[in-house]
Design brief:
The protein is an alpha/beta fold and 244 residues long. The chain folds into 2 domains: 50-113, Roll (Ubiquitin-like (UB roll)), CATH 3.10.20; 116-240, Rossmann fold (3-Layer(aba) Sandwich). It is 30% helix and 25% strand. It has a 9-stranded mixed beta sheet with strand order 6-5-4-7-8-9-10-11-12, with helices on one face. A hairpin with a 3-residue loop joins strand 4 (116-120) and strand 5 (124-127). Helix 4 (154-168) packs parallel to helix 5.
């Protein structure tokens, strides 16, 4: 009996269709793109050549440039704008900041500075929002009043400063120094050299009284007055710089 040979079954080779080729090419393209972008970042392509800072009034612009200079030694795509922003917000004068890239080689920085209302004690400034901040002394303003007071009372002092300033406006007096002592007693020194002791209670009532009697008692001789004491219930005491 002769057995026939078993034929081997041939398996046809499957070639990918058009859709498979497209998927493969897309994957290759995506991988190449990622590799290309990473290489650009690593090799520091498109280095930053210009940094512009806007909104600076009191801030030292060179100090800003010096602060961020190490952070912009990278390519355009590698710059971390949030890191630059965080560094700028650490500067005492800066209240708000925004940082953006401008193609192909620029960084634009816009800042909003704190608005100083007064010098606070010996080394700091007080903003209109009641923030105490301590910038370099060389950037302090000399044409704003000085507040002397305990920390934590700055908002209270700002409020009274605004009210007292408005009350004495008809007298053409400007506050040079406002002091709130630790026992909560108020003292004022005006730009003409006149000092006023308001005590610790009924402050605005006493200022009203001061404004009412000032034209009669002092008149146009405000610069000749050394000291006025308003702590009396039904009057005041005046000390002149020279004997009348």
């Amino acid at each position: 009996m002769v057995l026939g040979r078993t034929r081997k079954r041939q398996v046809p080779i499957q070639f990918p269709g058009k859709s498979g080729i497209k998927v493969f090419l897309f994957i290759v393209f995506l991988a190449s793109s990622i590799f290309f972008v990473n290489r650009i970042k690593e090799q520091q392509h498109f280095l930053i050549k210009q940094v512009s800072v806007y909104g600076v009034k009191h801030l030292d612009q060179q100090e800003v440039q010096h602060l961020i200079e190490p952070l912009v030694r990278k390519g355009f795509f590698a710059i971390n704008v949030e890191q630059i922003k965080e560094q700028i917000l650490q500067m005492p004068w800066v209240s708000e900041a925004s940082v953006r890239r401008i193609w192909p080689d620029q960084i634009s920085i816009a800042v909003i500075e704190r608005n100083p209302i007064a010098r606070w004690n010996s080394n700091s400034l007080l903003s209109s929002a009641g923030e105490i901040f301590t910038p370099p002394l060389k950037t302090h303003l000399s044409d704003i009043p000085q507040f002397l007071g305990p920390e934590g009372e700055q908002i209270h002092m700002l409020q009274y400063y605004a009210k007292i300033t408005n009350l004495v406006k008809p007298l053409h007096l400007k506050i040079a120094r406002l002091e709130l002592t630790h026992d909560l007693s108020w003292n004022i020194a005006f730009e003409n050299g006149m000092k006023v002791n308001l005590g610790y209670k009924d402050i605005l009532t006493r200022v009203h009284h001061f404004v009412k009697v000032y034209p009669k008692i002092v008149g146009g001789r405000g610069s000749d007055v050394d000291y006025i004491d308003l702590r009396y219930q039904n009057g005041l005491a005046v000390r002149w710089k020279t004997v009348l």
